[in-house]
Amino acid sequence: MGNKKASILVVDDNDDDLQVLGEVIEKEGYQPVLASGGEQALELISMKKPDLILLDATMPEMNGYVVCRRLKKDPETRDIPVIFLTSEWEDEDIVKCFESGGADYLKKPFDSIELLAKLKTHIEWKKSRNEVKHLDELLQKKNQELSEANKIIKVKTQQLNQVMGLLEQDTRTDPLTGLCNRRHALKLIDDEVVRYQRNQKPFSLVISAIEDLDVIHDTYGHDCGHAVLQMVTQIFISTVREMDSVARWGEGEFLIILPETGFAGAKMLEKRIRKKLEEQAFFYNKEIIPITMTFGAATFIGGESKEDVIKRADNALNKKSKR
């Protein structure tokens, strides 16, 4: 909004003053709009809001103070700067000017240079304030957009984390039994080796195998073999402690990791699992499917590797399988 485009509403009940003010304003390049009273001024403002108002303070019927107070109560017009005009400027008049919402005042008879200086100052001030307001609105809009974007990012991040969690779970879980897979079991054994090196507490491994699983597959079908694996899984899970880990080690093999457990504790667990297997018959298509399992246990010895303790447990399993 530059001088050439700024509109100024002049309100004065004195026709001579109104005419002179209009000419001065127009000569300076502004667009004057003239009103001879308060009611007419409010009607013109309702149709088109000016950039600034020159308002006579002492008019009959509706004086300038009343007009200004009405403008300042309306959110649509409260930001229009008002410069009061009057020939009577006592201290109380100046106070009334500012209390009613005026931005400035000018004494009649006015000096053209002072008038134009004040017009320029207040129009530029309004322009700057409008620009700040516009920028603030843009900032609020961008903040809102950013807030909405952050909400979307948060939701997408949560969804991505869920997917990543599922993918991570898939990489360490056997899909048929839901147990740890061999890869994750090896990591858990690494953790136990590190723990042993730190506190010297033993840990043991138990490897077990379902004998003749291939025969079950061939005789009753793979669905039956899968059901056997799942039943054995439930027996293992219901028998071990919360601190223990059970993994599917091979096609028909399981591995149990027993933290802070010596060889005797591993053999006791093996005995409890055998007892549950003997007590629980497995039916498939109304037939009892005989399930026999062999076990091999080993306790970690300081100085050996995880491969060593796994091999000793596996050798113990193989010896029993050959009997």
UniProtKB/TrEMBL annotation:
GO terms for biological process: cell adhesion involved in single-species biofilm formation; negative regulation of bacterial-type flagellum-dependent cell motility; phosphorelay signal transduction system. The modification 4-aspartylphosphate is found at residue 56. GO terms for cellular component: plasma membrane. GO terms for molecular function: diguanylate cyclase activity. Residues 132-159 form a coiled coil. Residues 7-123 form the Response regulatory domain. Residues 201-323 form the GGDEF domain. It comes from the Bacteria. Pfam families: GGDEF, Response_reg. May play the central regulatory role in sporulation. It may be an element of the effector pathway responsible for the activation of sporulation genes in response to nutritional stress. Spo0A may act in concert with spo0H (a sigma factor) to control the expression of some genes that are critical to the sporulation process. This is Stage 0 sporulation protein A homolog.
